[in-house]
Each structure stands twice: as structure tokens, then as C-alpha cells.
Amino acid sequence: MSSVKRRKVDGDVPSGLVKKSKKTAPAVESDSESAASPEPEPAAAESEAPAEETPLKTFKDLGIIDSLCDACTSLGYKNPTPIQAESIPLALQGRDLIGLAETGSGKTAAFALPILQALLDKPQPFFGLILAPTRELAYQISQQFEALGSLISVRCAVIVGGMDMVPQAIALGKKPHIVVATPGRLLDHLENTKGFSLRSLKYLVMDEADRLLDLDFGPILDKILKVLPRERRTYLFSATISSKVESLQRASLRDPLRVSISTNKYQTVSTLLQSYIFIPHPHKDTYLVYLLNEFAGQSAIIFTRTVNETQRLAILLRTLGFGAIPLHGQLSQSSRLGALNKFRAGSREILVATDVAARGLDIPSVDVVLNYDLPPDSKTYIHRVGRTARAGKSGHAISIVTQYDVEIWLRIEAALGKKQKEYDAVKDEVMVFKARVEEAQRHARNEMKNLHEDRGKKGATLKGRRPKDAKGGKRGRDEMDREEG
Ligand code: AMP
């Protein structure tokens, strides 16, 4: 894999990932009784420390060797983010870690750098295994490993569902240093690919552990853990800590330290401007088009609740001349990667997505998140709006709230702990779009009908179902890393 993304970051450090002061220091606490237990400090990922306080650390200060510091510089990482500043020194001391951090915090490099440094010290095949909940996230992690490890020629293999097993078996046969995998497909290879074992593994990372467990990967993780050597280092990263995450942690980590960059699990960064727009349900499309016009030229993700709606909106917007591309869990793996690549490259500026895209995707510079349909819960809201205002940039998140959504919106506001601003739309300006939107709606309806008929003929249905045996059997296992739209 050579398409390494070299993301330029404005300013020095990603979002809210500001200079460390006593007040902003991330909390580090021992998670076991036996370990030394420093007082956890209050954490606030986005507080702003006065500039004259403690100077920013460098990667070298954290103990990172020169060749990896150079790799960081070439990727535009000037200073470590707080999760990196806290976890890297502990990881280099050989501790197991629990990192409470979200995508966008720089957590991938927080675990990749110590692993690469240890690998350089004692190179060997199958040195590290990274488990991730979704296929896209697995690819992104591998790209970061390859980018950071390019100067030391690190070899990675990505093992995810939806792809042919044979090339993956061949990739494993080449004995990569790092395997990045979704759990279902990895277990398939552990059970069926001759000569493949992880008996010599030194590092295990479980990334987005809460999501892994939400997707019912728990039993598969248990099976994988049984065939890994106990003598290893383990890092568990999660945006939230639930009782399930805690029991996974007990089963897999030894004497871990907990590193957290935020105490409030519903915290959003200060550069994110959030608002809502309260409108009658039948006018949703017209308001959406109005909002897209307001933010013309900016990149946007529109979140919808269903696959069908994602497709319909993409057609509707394209009919109106917007560069919109759908992304959902029923696209083939190559179409999903293709859609994401087009969006990343900027040839399409609007991604219409189900929550499959809400997690883990490292999409640079999304200016606006539009919740066309409200998310089902506050946790998903946080993940959705986390696609903007990253790496210190500003961003907008606007939620369309109709008469049917009031209750859920109030719940989200309560979780955020503050009333959100109402977006100031000028009704007359909105209604200018009405006639054209209605025409595009008719076109989209026809296109959708054709799409349904075509799929009907081919024997597939648009409303794809999870395979019956989604929990344990091989077919189900293979589909588990592909979220439902
Ligand atoms: P992650 O939380 O690992 O998904 O990282 C979010 C984004 O921040 C990625 O695009 C990284 O390339 C970028 N990033 C990671 N560490 C740093 C850093 N120290 N300085 C600037 N950008 C970073």
C-alpha cells in the first residue's frame, strides 16, 4: 500500500490539543491496585493555556528516536498531541495502556510510534497486531504505520472482511511486521490459513474498543486473545468506557495505566460551532439545499439514517449540480474506498453518509457536518460532529430538527450540557429553492425506482440484510466489520 496520506495540519497541534499547563494536563491514573497511583488531575481537552506556560514538548523530549522524529516532521507533526505526550513516555517504559481518546486526537500515532520504536530495536515478523472495528479504520491505521515507518521500511498487512482471502493469505505469508485487522476476518485466517500464527506477537492494540464491542466482536476477541502470547504489551483505546470495555480490559491488559485527555465524554472542541434548524418535516430537502448553498465551496458530510435516504439524497443533490457521493454499509468494499478517495481528493465535496462514516474515518478538512436525520443517540452525535473542527481548524455542525425529532434533540442537548444556537435561516431565501428541489425530488424518486427494479432483477434487494448467522458463523463473521447503514 503506497497511498500514504500526508495530511497538513494548520497550526502545530490538533484540536484543543493545546499547550499543556497544570489545568489542561491529561489525566494519567493507574488502573490496578498494585501500580503506583498518581492523583488523577482534572482534564479538559480544550481549555486554553496561556502561551507563556510550559513550552510544548517535542517528540524527542518524549523519548522518540531521531528517525521517527524525522518521520513525524515530514508528516507535518510539529509537536505531540496531548494523548501522544501522555501515553508515549509510559508506553516506552513498557506499560500497558488504556487510552481514552477519540479519532482526531492523534491516538494512532500515540500507539504507532512506541510500537515502531520497539520494532526497530528488535525487528521480527508479526511484531504488532492492531484490531479495529471497521474496514476503513483498518486501512487508515495501516497508512499511518506505513507513513511513520517509511524510513525504516515497515511492512504492514491489512486483513479485513469483504476482500478475497487468498491475497490476504499471501500477504500474511510474506511475514509483515504489523497486521492491522478487523477481528472476524483475522480469526478466519488464524483458523484457516496454513502457517499463520501470532505466537511471537509482542504488541496488541485494540482500537475503538467500545465500537468493537458495540459491533458484537466480544466473543471473537476472546477467541483471538486465547491464541496470543501472554507476554506482550497491550494498548486499549476507546472513546468511552462501558462495563463491557472494562471487562475486556481486565481480560487483556496487565497492570495498565489509564491516560485520558477528556473527562467529559460528551465534550466537543471549542472550534466547533454547533447549531440546529427547526423546520417542518416536508421542507427538509429544501432547507438542506439552502444550507449547502450557504456553505458553497466547503466540504460537507451529510448524515442520514438509512441507506435508501443516502442514495436518494446523493441523486437529488447531483441533479441540482452538487458534487455529492454516497457512502454506506451496503456498498462493496472497493466502492466505499473509491467514494472516500474521491472525497479526500476533493473531486467531490459532499459525502452523504450513514453512520458507517461517523466513526474512525480520517477525512481531512471537513468544513461542515449536516445532520439531515438526527442521530439515534448522543454518543453518535458526538462521533458525527467530530468529523469537523479537527486538528485545530474551525467547523460547523448543523442539525435539522423537525416536529418529530424534538425529544431526541432535547436529549442530545442535555448530554452536551448546553442549549445549542438556532441557525438563522431567512425563510424567503429558503423558499427560492423550492421549485427546483421539487423537480429534483421527482427525478430522484424515478432513479430510485429504477435502482430498486434493477436490483430486484438481479435477485438482490436494496435493503440488504445481515447474514442470518451474524454472530458466530463464518459468513456472518466476515460481514461484521461492515456496519449496517
Ligand atoms: P487520529 O486521532 O490518529 O485519527 O489522528 C487524527 C489526525 O491528526 C491524523 O490525520 C493525523 O495524521 C494527525 N496527527 C496525528 N498526530 C499529530 C501531531 N502530533 N500533529 C499534527 N497532526 C497530527
Automatic annotation (TrEMBL):
Domain DEAD-box RNA helicase Q: 57-85
Region feature (Disordered): 1-53, 443-485
GO cellular component: cytosol; nucleus
GO biological process entries: gene expression; ribosome biogenesis
Taxonomic superkingdom: Eukaryota
Keyword flag Amino-acid biosynthesis: no
Ranges of biased composition (kind: Basic and acidic residues): 443-457, 467-485
InterPro entries named among the record's database cross-references: DDX47/Rrp3_DEADc, DEAD/DEAH_box_helicase_dom, DEAD_box_RNA_helicase, Helicase_ATP-bd, Helicase_C-like, P-loop_NTPase, RNA-helicase_DEAD-box_CS, RNA_helicase_DEAD_Q_motif
Domain Helicase C-terminal: 283-431
GO molecular function list: ATP binding; hydrolase activity; RNA binding; RNA helicase activity
Motif interval(s): Q motif: 57-85
UniProt-annotated location(s): Nucleus
Domain Helicase ATP-binding span(s) in chain numbering: 88-259
Gene3D superfamilies: P-loop containing nucleotide triphosphate hydrolases (3.40.50.300)
Compositionally skewed regions (Low complexity) per UniProt: 25-48
CDD domains registered for this protein in UniProt: DEADc_DDX47, SF2_C_DEAD
SUPFAM superfamilies: P-loop containing nucleoside triphosphate hydrolases
Keyword annotations from UniProtKB, A to Z: ATP-binding, Helicase, Hydrolase, Nucleotide-binding, Nucleus, Ribosome biogenesis, RNA-binding
Family listed: Belongs to the DEAD box helicase family. DDX47/RRP3 subfamily.
Protein name: ATP-dependent rRNA helicase RRP3
